[in-house]
Fold these 3 entries.
Entry 1:
Amino acid sequence: MQAGQRYTFFQTARWSRKYIRMFLLFDTLVVVAYHFLRWEWMLMPWQPLSLIGIAVAFYLGFKNNSSYERLWEARKIWGGIVNTSRSFTVLVRNWVNNDESIRKLNEDELDILRKELVHRHVAWLHALTFEMRKLKDWEHVASNDVVMRKVLGTEFHDGQFDKLRSYLSAEDHAYVMSKGNRSSHLLALQTKRLTELRQDGLIEHFRHLSMQQLITELYTLQGQSERIKNFPFPRQYASVNYFFTVLFIVLLPFGMLDVFTEMQHDYWIWFSIPFSVVASWVFWMMEMIGDYSENPFEGLYNDVPISTIAAGIEIDIRQMLEETDLPPIPKAASDMNIQI
């Protein structure tokens, strides 16, 4: 997502430049047709147009509020993943021990067990990140969006799951790759392993229950992420909002003509072109912002930066085990100063 204070005006204009050109061409054609052909029927009273504009503004406000709620809920979910990951790692570090173990392990063997659990959790983080990047039918697939995903490194491909090999045993990796929802089965493996450690006495019974509650919480947070990812902003609202915005933009230059033809000099009608373009751009930008905010996991510049969050969690929890061979946190990229 955007990492700077704000987008610059020129970045915003460049993002919507295709539509600005369309508005400029259409609005100019309307004025030229009226000026040279004197088609008086092209003049539209401003009062009915203003009523349509008010209705469109209400629709845009509703859509943007709803899209922001989806975006902010996604960020809160991943904030919960941060906190739960830290809690789980602290419990693994302190509660996997020989206090009640059937067979006493030396400290190196205990460290291997702790790293196994924490690394499996890191694998879950990355698997969930990859699965959140799978494109849905309602997400943006225009050519510039495809290019942006390549630039950011957020495009989904099945080979990304090979990264999990460095965190899992060969057996666990093969098992996970045979499943559909791989992150869900990683949590299942974690539960199975915690049960085995409890049976061996390496985790005390009540401590095991506390750790399993955190696994259950991770299931909940994953399900909440999947709910946002797999269920779009209701299509009926998105469709009507789009149609009404387009209708208003199409009618707008005719209303502007009516306003500027009442001016004292004929040349004033040419001022209706820039005013129509600016007004159209304002309404269309509101539509675009809502449209690009409603899918917070699609790997574009206005997303929740789950790759950065996952990398930050990995560094944080592995440092709790005194590991030093850590990955770098993804940095802001491109001239838009974005994180992914």
Entry 2:
Amino acid sequence: MSYARDPRVTLSLTGSAWGVNIIAMTAARPKIVGCEHYADTAFERLRTVGDVVHLESPNEDELIAVLDDADAVLVRTYTQVTKRVLQAAPRLKVVGRGGVGVENIDVQAAAARGITVVHTPAAATEAVAELTVGLILALERKIITGDARVRTDDFAAARHEAIGRELGQCTLGIIGMGRIGRVVGRIASTGFGTRVVYNDIIGVGPLGFPAESVSKPELYAAADVVTLHVTLTNLTRGLIDAEALAHFKPTTTLINTARGAVLDGAAVAAALHDGRLAGAAIDVFDPEPPPPDHPLRSAPNVILSPHAGARSPRGQARMNDVVDDVIAVLEGRPPRYPVT
């Protein structure tokens, strides 16, 4: 820290026969801006090292207005830490993201400024994987539609039409065999006897369960269920579009618990309307929340979930642990989970 340029440094001076002597030179506590929802316990941990300002859901201008003298900022899913935001924060040392993806943070602009970005890559692995498997079961065994029809006194017809596929007779195609994809594959393979095929842009090493690496077109053609577990990047944006869906079997179901922009919602809705896709379960949307005219809201055979994949007590607690890495950076210690 350069005390001469820091307006928050306090100098204690006294006069003497020999001139002015500096008695003490102390810096104010770091300013930490927390955006969206973090647990009270997380804010309490931050207050042990700095002064915390909480913003519920700031837009870009509102965030800029409080970052001129901030040392750290924490965000969740929706707050955008853009290049413009970073340029307005000359003192910023660290950006924390409670969650896995960092697409709402300009990581390159942060790196150019020497600002550390930290996140919680393993926080919600089990929670998201379990919701994924739950959505697969709900689609394949028609759980949601069966519930609705029983409530409308259509019991006999609903029971007649409630024939669904057992997962042991299905091939599961996993796009992205990272932490979450691995857990989904393990549950499906060892728990249900499901055949697993997958595609990833990097080698994944030993998995601990049977799974075959295939190309994307091969996966689309073979899978009875396709589930997406990729981060949102320029390579994955719009990954499941009309061209990809053309390779799917009409009996295939699609699960997305990754990011909404990974699939083309209009193309998926059209495939559902035309019978070229048997069903879909969607936990994430582009944009969020989905507006009334979002094409998936009116498509048939769709289960819609409110971005709830990580919403378990343990998952949320682990996301709050990003504050430990923020504190580490502020104290000059290396963080556990920096984004590189």
Entry 3:
Amino acid sequence: MPKLLRVPEAHVDYAYGIYLLGTKHRLIKAIKTRYQPTIHGHKAWGSGFLLMDYLTHNGLRRGVKALEVGCGWGGVSVFCASKFGSKMTAVDLDPAVFPYVGVLAELNEVKIKPRKADFTRLKGSELGEFQYLLGSDICFWDSLVKPLARMVNRALDNGASRVIISDPGRPTFYEFCDLMAQRHNASLQAWYAIEPERFEGEVIEIRSKK
């Protein structure tokens, strides 16, 4: 059985080697009085834990540059920086999420570079600076499917090694996966996380055919 780790106070989770704060934690409640995310960035989503579990078994090379797209509270960025020493940049369209990213990074003693941007509009030269692109629960609207696919195409065409995206299994996500399989080496797997509780979904890993 896994080792039982007692967290220091209420509304703190310990999952995949990092501390995470619940929505009722005093620091989160304090941040919410000033910053109110508007694009689903109001909590840590289960697909983030799904991606953490997948990366635990299919990890990143140590110390490389990685980009988390649609980062929300940045749990995946914090996990990668802590476990793999990744040089993480966390991108989100909503700047109100970055105070949450900052508090999680400080809590786990890692550094995350925040960047406000629409990830679907990042240029190929910018995306190619990163060896890995990571995302969780970022294909939740029909209008995101083709822009997300084009972003992945630009990233891989400009030198990114791996793109890994997790999702609970929405129809829009499967539509995106079909587009990826037409152009790249794409591996779609059913996956589940066990920390801080069980969560099931899908993970796609995409690599260039070149």
